[in-house]
């Protein structure tokens, strides 16, 4: 099998040779940031939005990305080309770089940049018609006063603990609540509620990442002559929803059919969810930045 070509610090290397130091603070402390980006039909989807968020995450953690935006843009496209891919997933990572065993980032002189482009299939098609079984979990979303959930950092232990708890319940995704008991988001997805033909989603300030797919839902809603309202949501609001769905770069738009043992809808994606899935898929096919 042909190895993937990985971009790392200005070079393309075969996957077995793509290595970072054991002294890299991305590894030692989760000190770094990333983006997960999809490309469809030879075009990088919502590319500028992902770069905007990456630069915002960098600014928030006082990390200087050691490349101009235009060069990073080109490196991402070239990584797709080097692997002859037209549909897949990009992981763009910037770590604090190599330092010593102290956590002080001042010792890290050169951030590490690497880019992986590969194929992905997160959920089987059945999930998009029938939905996922999810659970709320005891691990709370980290508070914005501790580490802002708006930063897409390499520090995912909060989400991973929630995922582990969901796994223990046999759930396909886990929903995290914030410290006030309001719904925040899932481990790698935002959440939406449909009730009596109205659409709701948690505020970003309730502990949700400002998801790029989440933001797209607001645009698609306008196309559909609908409105999405940002509100505080409780578990009760999830239990009595007519429809629930998740959004994320990996998951795309995926219905939920059960939450904490409460059935949602008829067992098939509800009409509003189906409409979002349809409009989302159209967008993926007719927009994006050309790779070739
Ligand atoms: N919340 C969290 C905590 C996330 O990590 C989202 C929401 C959705 O955001 P976007 O911008 O993707 O609509 C994410 C997405 C993956 C993957 O492979 C995705 C994320 C993290 C790790 C893996 O789907 N982030």
Walk me through the structure.
The chain is an alpha+beta fold and 292 residues long. It has 2 domains: 5-118, 2-Layer Sandwich (D-amino Acid Aminotransferase, Chain A, domain 1), CATH 3.30.470.10; 127-286, D-amino Acid Aminotransferase, subunit A, domain 2 (D-amino Acid Aminotransferase, Chain A, domain 2, Alpha-Beta Barrel). Helices cover 29% and strands 28% of the residues. Strands 7, 8, 9, 10, 11, 12, 13, 14 and 15 form a 9-stranded mixed β-sheet that branches. It is globular and about 55 Å long. The two termini are 24 Å apart.
The gist of it:
The protein is of the alpha+beta class.
Domain count: the total is 2
- Quantity of strands, as a count: 16
Shape: globular
Unreliable stretches covering 5 or more consecutive residues: none
Ligands present? 3-[O-phosphonopyridoxyl]--amino-benzoic acid
Q: How does the major sheet shape up?
A: 9 strands, mixed
Radius of gyration (Å) = 19 Å
Q: Which percent range describes the beta-strand content?
A: 25-35%
Q: H/E element string?
A: EEHEEHHEEHEHEEEEHEHEEEHE
CATH top level assignment of the largest domain: Alpha Beta
Put simply, the count of helices is 8
CATH superfamily of the largest domain: D-amino Acid Aminotransferase, subunit A, domain 2
Indicate the CATH topology of the largest domain: D-amino Acid Aminotransferase, Chain A, domain 2
Please outline the helices and strands.
Elements lengths: L4 E4 L2 E4 L10 H5 L2 E9 L2 E2 L2 H14 L8 H14 L5 E8 L16 E7 L6 H6 L1 E5 L20 H13 L3 E5 L5 E4 L3 E6 L2 E5 L9 H12 L4 E4 L3 H5 L3 E6 L3 E8 L2 E2 L7 H16 L2 E2 L2
The structure holds 3-[O-phosphonopyridoxyl]--amino-benzoic acid.
